[in-house]
Amino acid sequence: MIEPKGTRAAGLRKRRFDLVQKLRLPAEALPGSLALTHGRCGKATCHCAEGKGHGSWSLTFMVRGKKRVERIPEEWVEEVRRRVDQGREFREALSEVLTANAELLVLARRQRSR
Length: 114
Hints:
- Helix 1 runs antiparallel to helix 2 (77-113).
- This protein has 2 helices and 3 strands.
- It has one domain (7-113).
- Strands 1-2-3 form a 3-stranded antiparallel β-sheet, with helices on one face.
- It is an alpha+beta fold.
């Protein structure tokens, strides 16, 4: 394995180690985002004809390059939000590990060329 020397490299390796320990994929994590939208049903006598409309929760995510939007029942919102947050935290930690690996590679290459 290519490993550079120095304090910056040591800091990157420590951060990478900490993140890898944290990177246990939550089994129920969800991708995408949860959003509340408002729409009108079209009935002239409904309260939504004057106000902001009926609230509707949806989860938006990508599957094989195609966007999907699934409606989420009101009683599921808190659980789905928790699972979306888990997915986001996992993706962010994974991205940091990959970035640290790239930075360590660059530092090693620079040390080798000296």
